[in-house]
Every structure is written in structure tokens, then in C-alpha cells.
Amino acid sequence: MKSLQKSIKHKFLKLLVTGLTLPMMTAGLQAAESELGVEEIISKANKVSYYAGDDGRSDARMMIVDKDGNRQLRQFVILRKDIQDEGDQNFLVVFSRPSDVRGTVFLVNKHVDRDDDRWLYLPGLDLEKRISAGDKRTSFVGSDFFYEDVSGRNPALDSHELLEVTDTAYIVKNVPQDKSNVEFAYYIANINKETFLPMTVEYFNDKGEVYRRMDVAEVEEVQGIPTVMKSKISNLETGSVTYMEFRRPVYNIGVPEDVFTSRSLRNPPREWLEAEQE
Amino acid sequence: MKQSLLKFSMTKPKWVFIITLLVTAITGAMIPNIVVDTDPENMLAEDQASRVYHNDVKDRFDLYDIIVVGAVNNSEKGIFNPRSLAAIKKLTDGIAEIEGVVAPDMMALSTVDNISQEGPGTIRFEWLMKQAPETQRQADWINQQVERLPLLQDTLASGDDKATAIYVPILDKDESYRISQEIQGLINQLDSDDEYHITGLPVAEDTFGYQMFVQMGISAPLAALVIFILMWVFFRNFKFIAAPMIIAMATVIITMGLLIGMGFTVHIMSSMIPIFLMPIAVVDSIHIMSEFADSYKPGRDRKEVIKEVIGHLFTPMLYTSITSAVGFFSLLLTPIPPVQIFGAYVGFGILLAFILTIIFIPAYLIALKPKSLESLQSEAKQEGTLQKVLKKVGKGSLAASKLVTVFFVAVVALSVWGITQIQINDNPVRWFKADHEIRVADRVLNDHFAGTYDAYLVLEADESKAKDNWMKSVQAIEDNTLKSEVMNIMQNENQLTTQLNQVMILLEDKLFDANDQRAQILEDLIMKADEARVKVAYFQQPEILREIEKLQQALAESGYVGKSNSLADVVKTVTRELKTGQPKDFVIPDSQNGVAQALLQYQSSHRPQDLWHMVTKEYSSTAIWLQLTSGDNQDMTKVVEFVDQYLADNPLPEGVKAQWAGKSYLNMVWQDEMVKGMLDSLMSAFVVVLVMMIVLFRSILFGLLAMLPLSITILFIYGLIGWVGKDYDMPIAVLSSLTLGLSIDFAIHFLERARDIFKQTGDFKQTMVKMFEEPASAISRNAIVIAIGFTPLLFAPLVPYITVGFFLATIMAASAVVTLVLLPVALKATRKWAFKS
Question: For residues B474 and B482, is the Cβ–Cβ distance under 8 A?
Fold first, then answer.
């Protein structure tokens, strides 16, 4: 009896949802005809967000602010080199703050077609370790950013639907192909028409409520490349917000590929990590 | 005053009726606004230090009240089989959707992370049970993983592999009944043969509140019915009975209406007010009605008779009412707010009943038709078995006065021994009967797991030294603009570490475009700020974590706790998995940096927030979680005493202090306060009543004699509690003052009448014979009405009500017996002084 009720309720909800989204979808379809295809939009967004230049470095600072206003600090340098645009790439992340984790290093060989290779070095434990992560939606060093927010989510993992085109943005709904590996039901990205940078992303749960959102607060042009300088991710369930700030970003510095091997864990390549003095 | 009131009620009976009705209606209209409060936390005043600290700790570590759901599979295969786990997974997902559940903090097999070894040199972070397993092998694997994780072992899965639990944190404990009902609904839909149980203190408390409503709806009307039937048995006249019933109803409605109207919540104690007031309220009107029926002869002027009766009864009635009220008012001296409210309103109700009786009954008698008056008077005058028995009692006790004395000395001696055996203990879960599903759940789950009761031992490190050092560096800044900017941050309301982080960000932003010389200054300052921050992060130091480890070890060996969890366990587990996964690496790293880095890895999980339930973000305070298998205050007391002793033998480093929080601890605190408070209130009520008795009888001897029956009754009752082995809990504690207030009535009536009759007869023997005619039967009748009036409580579904019902009935019976048996003997022994002419 109860399950019958439930299924009726479920059907009703479904009707309601399709009824509501139908006008939006048709509006989206009409608009989409005169614009780019949704796959192209997503591909461009992926490229400008994670594959700017052939390589790059930047100082990064995270401020994690909990619901009571307590602040924690994470500061690191991030070094990147692409093997192929929208394909494999390498990251080296070296921490400088808090001072007790100084020298902690993450090395990531990101793969599009298989699991990433990840290494970790902890100087305080004098320990080098390979990490095999079950999924990429775990917290990045205790912040509200996920590992995947830092390294980029493979667009092929979601199906995309252009909901709306406004004067300034493409509104794209992304539904995961495999629901079992993610905590969201879908997310909606607001992608800037000019820069193709996603300016806000809202993550929805099964109830259709936003429980997490990303906002870009500041974009600057660096070497002609629109670059996110300030962004934040809010966890609406816990009331925690993490502000991420990039500083002194540079692109196309010519960092060699052998920097991204486990040798760099114990001996981070100073010459590539330090910002050039202006 | 007395005369004018009487005159008013006899000349304007209609006005009396209208006013009574109006007041009752107005106050009665407030009753629907009732708010029930079953939170034991409210046993402590809101500003009570332990309660304030408890709530501070809850805020500091983001702790919520927790409902525990357990699944048990007692078959050979245990709970770790695909079907059981599929049900658990489904249930967990369902619970996460319930409104009011703090889903991110839920603890269940499918919501927690696992850290494990994946081949040499590789660790793996992942959900422990993202999907329910499909094969038995996968199910076994999950079980093995849990056994490796000390934080989860015996918490999420039982050591015997038969049970698993879901811990459901909730936003508002007042919602736990609804949430537990919704969980039960989900359980009913599961495809599972496993036993499911729901427990946890919030559920017990909120369910109790729900049942309290039911209980009030049943017991109070039942008490009224019982009293009605009893009076019918004694008086067999509807018009006669109607008067005391009206007084009782009006008293209860006005008192409860006022309590609710004044904005007080109805607590377990105050929900018993109607049942207390009803029997007490009818007693005075029974006195007046009986005496009126005795004195009135057709043809006599009613008003004259009423004046005579009231004149006769006013003083003893006033005194018995005031003494009963004093007994209840003395509860105001306990530091427990719900007990204070209970005492205040019952005391008020008793005085109100007295005033209503004095005003309403005369008006009622005046308004009766002559015919009804005749019928009143024709009844009430038959000698029943009660009277016959009483006469024998009177004769017997006087004849065997030595034996009686010996008997009561023996009772007192045995009672004193019994009192020394009293176990002070309470546990909200025990408020339910042993076969209630909450009690069953409590038993089963605490049998399988390390305990469903929480207490927190909170350690705090003094950060003032680090702050002073840093502030010295700030004062030394030469650049005034910079100094004031830093000072601004240091004066904001944030925690020290947050301020230091803000300062570091400010300084680093300035570093961005600073020249060499200035950069050096800024870097120096940043370093000092960071030094201060590291100092504040005291609980990242290996030394203190090892101290915590030792304390936990001692706790485990003591056997008083099921289990304890701490930051040290987190650090050790992460370190082990980061290193080799072998037991030899289950250690605390040697440096603060090592600890910090292990913790950074712990945070790189699906649930980084878990860490902050054990330590603050500054790492300046940490909570050791204790799981207890029993919610008895006594067991918590043992833990507290053990830790006190341990910390006395192994002092914490200087500047570190330890303090308790948690529901189990709070329950212990209010229990202690109540025991002390009850002793105070009993002592002061005793003294006040003694003084009143001396004034009333204008004799120290009579004053002391009046106190004799109740003193023996109190000793006897508490002796009995000791003998029976019943825990001294909240309802029991309240009984002492009640006994005092109620049983003094019998002694007053007995002594007053004995003195009166002696004046007429001048002979002690004859006085006693007369005493065991009308006066003794009046006393017995009242005792029976009150005692039986409380018996509907025996049918209550909740234990505290049953306790109160049983002991009050016993108290009434015991004090009537003591009065009737012992007072004649005592009077005989002291008659030379008592009845000197």
C-alpha cells in the first residue's frame, strides 16, 4: 500500500518536473539554434578553465570560513603542464601554509581515460605515498573545494543540456552518466558567453535543492587569457565557505615534463615554483 | 475578614457561583496553550554553569543530539550479508531525506570513509559502502574494514558481527519523536528479517512527552472518577458529593490554567499537579459537609449552622492547608526549576482549594432546596466496618503500648538501615516500563555496541601566553598605520587563530609590493604570528596526544566505559594507514608537523567536518568522546570519579584543564543538585511546620507530638525504598516534602480533637475511647480518599507516575496508621504534661 502511494507520488513529481522544465527546454532549443552547440560550449568552458596556455603556475590561497566565522588558511603553489588540450595533464601542488604542513606535496598525472595517478609527500612523516582514490569528490585538504574542482571534471562524465541562453551567458544543465560516483543529481553552470568561464555552478540534490555552489568573483586577463582570480565554493548544508584566490599567475613558462615525476616530491623544483620578481 | 466572606457567600450565593464559574472559565481557556517539556536539561536552570558549558561545548564541536538506529541479525551469518546491508543502505538513504536530520553528519556504513592499503606503497580513500554489496565476500570485506578502524569498531558494527547502527544527528531534540516515527515508517517498508531498534536519549525524552499527554488525558479523569466512587461509597448522596467534586475541578482547572497562562511549560512534575490536587482539594469540603450534616436539624436556621460549622473548622482547616502548602512550597528551595514550579503551583492550589471551600460550600448549602438538605442529613450516620475496626485498634494499641513502642522503635531502626542502603540514581530511559520498545532497544543495542550514551571530557589549553607574546610583537611595530591595522584585527570578535590568520593574510598582501627592508619587517611579523598560531594549536603536539592516549587506556581498563574516541585515535589510524597499515605504525607521530600533516590527510575525505567534532579549528580544545552502555547517573558518577582520581595521580600539563559535558553528565549534575536541594527543603519545611504546630497548640510538647507520625512515616518510606532497592530518583526525591505536608493533617486533627475531648471529659481513658469513634473514622476516611485517589497513577504507562502513585498511597496509609496507633501511646506516656489542667 505504502509503496503504491509512493510510486504514485513519484509519478506525480515526475509530471510536475517535466511540466515545469518543458517550456524552459523548448525555449532553450529555440535559442540554441542560433548559437553554438552545447557540446562545443562545454568543451570551450573546459578548455578555458583548466587548459589555459600549455602550462602555468600560480600562487593560491584558500580561506576556509565555517558557519561561526572561524578561518583556516591553506596556501600553496600550483604548477601545471598539459600533455594535450582537453586531455591528460600534470599538476604539482606544493604547500607553504599553514607552516606545519609546509613542504607537503601533491603530484597528479591526470588521465582522461583512466584513473589519475596521484602521489603524496608528507615531510613531517618523511613519507612518500601513492594514493588510489575511490572517487574525486573528496575534500581538497579540508576545504569546500573537491579534488575534482581543482583538477577539473571530465565533461564526458556528464550529459549536457542547454537550458537557456541569456544576453551574457549559456545556462547548461549537466546530468551525471553514472549517478553512483557523485553526490549530486545534476548541476547547472552559468557560462559566460565571451570568456566561456563558468561564473556560477549550482549543485542540486535529489530533492531538486541547491546544496552547493561555486561563484567566480573576479576575472583578470593574464597574458591575454581570461583567468579566474577569485572564486568561492559554498557548502549550503554545513554553512562553510571556501574562498580561493590566485596570485601572480603566469602561462607558457616552458616547464619541462620531468618536473612532474615522483622525484619532485622530496625536492620540489624551486626554479619553477617561485614567482618571478617583477 | 472571615466573617465578611462568609456573610457575602451566604447572602449572595449566585454571585459566588458566577464568580467561580467565570474565573474557572477564563483560566480554563488558557489550558489549550499547553507546552510540554520533557527535556531533562531543563532540570537545571538555563544559566546553571554545567548546562551553559554543555551547550557551549555542543556549539564549539558542532555536536547534535543523536538518535541511534540499530539493526540486529542473530542468525549464523550475522548482519554482514548482502540482503541486510542492502536494507541498511536503503534505510540510511531514506533517513537522510527526513526533515530535521543533519544528513552530512549521519554515521552509517554507507556514509563514512574508509582508508585502506591497496598494495604496497599505496593507500586508498573511499566510501566504506558506497553501494550495498552484491556478494557475501564483499559484505565480509566491509566487516573487516570496520574492524581496522577504531573510530567505527563497536560503534558502527558490533564486535560479534551481529549488529550495525546508524547514528542520526538531529537539529532539534524536540522533534525526535516525530523523526523516530518517520524512521520507524521507513523500517516497516524494508525488505528485511532483521530486528530494528530505535533508541537514544532524545527519543526517550520526546516519546515520554508524547506519552505524558496521553497519561494526563487518562489519569486525571480517572482520579476524579475514583474519588467520586469512593465518596459515593462513604456518603451515598449525589448532592453531598457534588460539592467537593466542584471544588476539586475548579481548583485543578484554575491552577493548571494559571500555570499554562503564566507561560510555564508543563514538565513531568507539573503534569502530576491535577492528580495531587484533586484528593487534597476534596478533603476540606468533606469535613464541612459531614459536620453540617451532623449538626443540621430540620427547622434550624441554616445560616446559623453554617456559621457554627465554619467557626469550628476554620482554624484546623487553615492550619492543615497551610502546612500542606508549606510542604510543597519548600520545594522552591531545590535548585531544580520544574520541581520549583510544581511545588509553587501545588502549594497555591491547596490554598486556593481552602479559599474556594470556605466561600463556595456555604453558598452551595444555602442554595440547596430544603428537601435535598433532609436527604443529606439522613445519610452519613451509619456505623460501618471501618468504625468497628477502628475501635479495636484504639483499644489494642493502648493496651499493648509497650509492644507498640518496641514495634515503632524497631521500624525506625530498620528504616534507618534501609536509608543507608538507598541508591541515588536516575535514567530517563528507565522512565519507560521494562517491556517498552525503547527499553528493549536500549538493552539490545547496548548489549551489542560500546554504548548509546555519550559524555564528553573536554580539554582546553590556555592560550593567553601565546597571545601575550604575540601582542608584545604587535606593540613593537614601528609603522603606526600597520600597527593600527593589526590591532584592528586583534580586537575583532574572532578566535585568536582566526585573527592570526587574518593578520597573516593582511601582511602577505602588503608583502606583495613592499621594498626589501619593509619585506624583512613584514616577514618577521608573519613568522611571529605563525609561531603564536602553532603555540595555540596545543592539541597537535605529540606529548599531549600521548597523555590522552594513556587516559583512554586507563578508561578502557577501568571497565566503566564501553569505548572512548579521541583526536589521538584519528591521528594514530591515519598514521598507520599512511605508513604501512601494520599495527606497529599505530602510533602518534613524533613531531607536531607530523600530526598536522596526518590530520590534513584525514580532512581530504568525503567528511572533513568530522574532525571538528573532536577538536576545534584552533586545536586549542579537544573533546574525548565516551560511549557508555548505561544512562544511569550512577554509572556516569563512577566514570567522573575515576577520571578525577586518574587526573589527580597523573596531572595534566600546566595550563590544560579538563571539564565534562554531555547529556549523561548533565543528568548526573541535576541529580546531585536535587538530592542536596531536597534535603534542604525537607529540613526547612520540617522546622517551619514544627514552629507552626507549636504556635497552633501553644505547646512545645504538642508541637513535637504532631511531628512524630510524619517523621516516622518519612523514615519508613525512605527505609522501604532502601530495602526494596528502588533507586532514589526524581519522583522519589519529591515525595519527602509531600509526606510532610500531607501526613501532618492527620496529627493535627487527632491532637486537636483529643485536647477538645479531654477538656469535656477530664479523663484520658475516656478521651481515647471517644477519639476512636467519630474523629478516628474521619481521619481514616480522609486517608482512604487520598490514598485511593492516587491509585489511578498505578495504571500509567510511565514509571515515574507509577512510583509516585504507589508511594503516595503507601504514605497516606502509613501515616494514618502511625497517627492512630502511635499517637494514643505517645499521649499516654506524656499525659502528665500533655493534659495538665
Answer: no
Range of the domain at A252: 25-269
DSSP helix/strand/coil, B778: helix
Let me know whether B472 and B341 are in one domain: no
Pairwise CB contact (< 8 Å): B530 & A61: no
3-class SS string, A182-216 = CCCCEEEEEEECCCCCEEEEEEECCCCCEEEEEEE
Residue B377: predicted pLDDT: 58
Residue B593 has its nearest CB partner, among A100, A180, A207, at A100
Same structural domain, B22 and B94: no
Same domain, B77 and B130: yes
Say which of A68, A70, A98 has its CB closest to residue B596: A98
What CA–CA distances, in Å, run from B315 to A230, B773, B780? 84, 22, 20
pLDDT confidence of residue B381: 52
Boundary-marking domain end, from B162, B188, B206: B206
Q: How many CB pairs under 8 A join A and B?
A: 137
**CB contact (8 A) between residue B512 and residue A180:** no
User: Is B496's Cβ below 8 Å from some Cβ in A?
Assistant: no
Reported confidence tier of residue A26, pLDDT bands at 50, 70, 90 = very low
Better pLDDT: A120 or B782:
A120
ipTM: 0.86
What CATH number does the domain containing B809 carry?
1.20.1640.10
The total domain count for chain A is: 1
Domain range for residue B148?
64-206
* pLDDT, greater one: B275 or A42: A42
Residue in A98, A129, A238 nearest the CB of B121: A129
Are B387 and B342 within one domain? no
CB contact under 8 A, A72 and B608: no
Q: A66-70, A157-161, B374-378 — which one is most confidently predicted on average?
A: A157-161
Using an 8 Å Cβ cutoff, are B721 and B728 in contact?
yes
* B contact residues 230-289, partner A, Cβ 8 Å cutoff: none
pLDDT band at A276 (very low <50, low <70, confident <90, very high): low
Same domain, B817 and B718: yes
Question: Which residues from chain B sit within 8 angstroms of residue A238, using beta carbons?
Answer: 104, 609
For residues A129 and A114, the answer to whether their CB atoms sit within 8 Å is: no
| Angle ∠(B502,B503,B507) on CA atoms, nearest 5 | 120
Chain A contacts of B512, Cβ < 8 Å? 247
Cell numbers standing for residue B391: 475501635
User: Is residue A6, in this structure, part of any structural domain at all?
Assistant: no
Of A138, A207, A247, Cβ closest to residue B125: A138
Residues B714 and B834 in one domain: yes
Choice among A84-98, B346-360, B522-536, B674-688 with the minimum mean pLDDT: B674-688
Least confident of B609-613, B637-641, B798-802: B798-802
* Interface residue B120 vs chain A (CB under 8 A): no
Q: What is the CATH number of the domain that holds A123?
A: 2.50.20.10
- Does residue B126 belong to the interface with chain A, where contact is any CB pair within 8 Å? yes
The answer as to whether B712 is a domain residue is: yes
What value does the mean pLDDT of chain B take? 88
Q: Is the pLDDT score of A28 beyond 70?
A: no
- Answer yes or no: do B269 and B156 share one domain: no
- What contacts 24+ positions apart, CB below 8 Å, involve A29-33? A31/A162, A31/A164, A31/A165, A32/A162, A32/A165
Chain A contact present for B580, CB below 8 A = no
User: Contacts of residue A3 in chain B, CB cutoff 8 Å?
Assistant: 189
The count of domains in chain B is 4
Q: Is residue A20 part of a domain?
A: no
Q: Quote the CA–CA distance of B740 and B717 in Å, as a whole number.
A: 12
Looking at B483, B513, B536, which one is the last position of a domain? B536
The side-by-side arrangement of strands in the sheet containing B621-628 is B563-565, B621-628, B453-461, B656-661
Tell me if chain A has a CB within 8 Å of the CB of B104: yes
pLDDT in tens, B32-41: 888 888 787 8
Mutate to test the interface with A, among B494, B601, B605, B607 (most CBs of A within 10 A): B601
Measured between beta carbons, the chain A residues lying within 8 angstroms of B127 are 134-135
Share above pLDDT 70 across residues of chain A, in percent, rounded to a whole number: 86
